[in-house]
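Researcher: Structure prediction, please.
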Amino acid sequence: VQLVESGGGLVQPGGSLRLSCAASGFAFYSYEMTWYRQAPGKERELVAAISGSGGSTNYADSVKGRFTISRDNFKNTVYLQMNSLKPEDTAVYYCKARPLNYWGQGTQVTVSS
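Model: Predicted structure follows.
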């Protein structure tokens, strides 16, 4: 199993970023995919989840209305569109296939002026 996150960077408050996670080594379309984040000194938290078909999504209250999770089962890729970013969104973002216990290296998102 391999998960490779990309798309992070430094953005000003109110800005947008689109994260990508390329997956391989498992039947991608069969698994719920999730995005987690971990800020310095804090526990890793679930941000968003999407069902295998893409027909069902869930979000943490802190990002609802600002973030959108999507997936492309032909490309074995899951995305996280992040709009109206806030400084408290600063964290390392990881994708994960549930219930598999594999993590990628993560991608750093920093929201700062």
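Model: Residues 30 and 52 are 5 Å apart (CA to CA).
Researcher: Thanks, that helps.
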